[in-house]
Amino acid sequence: MDSAAKRKSKVGQIPAFAGVFAIRSPSRMWVGCSRSVETARRSLWFQLRNGVHSNTALQHEWNLCGEESFAFELLEEVREQAARELEKELRRRREQWARRAGALEL
Asked: Looking at the predicted structure, is the pLDDT value of residue 55 above 90?
């Protein structure tokens, strides 16, 4: 078992780690980052399912194509560091992934 799998959050025993992720639809890709990737995924899906996500392009695509057309993918785990450095590093890597993939940023 890798170190990410060993680190468990208290809620639901879901691995808790920071990282950069992608949301893919049939025609687009969005890149985001979070201190807790799984919490971000659950929050994004909740907002999209309820039609209240702040990114109107993403919400429109979701409404048009349906949930089954979307995928959530971990692009990179970012190792723990001091809080200030972690936020800065997450943003930097999100921007790199978005540029590299020609994706939109969340």
From this structure: yes
Looking at this protein, which amino acid is placed at residue 46?
F
Q: How far is CA 6 from CA 3, 13, 16, 17, in A?
A: 5, 10, 9, 10
Q: Across the strands, what pairs with 74?
A: 21
H-run or E-run covering 71: strand 71-78
Q: Strand 71-78 relative to strand 18-24: parallel, antiparallel, unpaired?
A: antiparallel
Among residues 86, 23, 80, the alpha carbon closest in space to that of 53 is found at 23
Strands 29-34 and 104-105: parallel
Amino acid code (one letter) for 103: A
User: DSSP secondary-structure letter at 102?
Assistant: T
pTM: 0.81
Q: What is the pLDDT of residue 83?
A: 73
User: Which residue type sits at 36?
Assistant: S
Angle between helices 56-65 and 37-49 (to 10 degrees): 70
Phi/psi of residue 36, each to 5°?
-135, 100
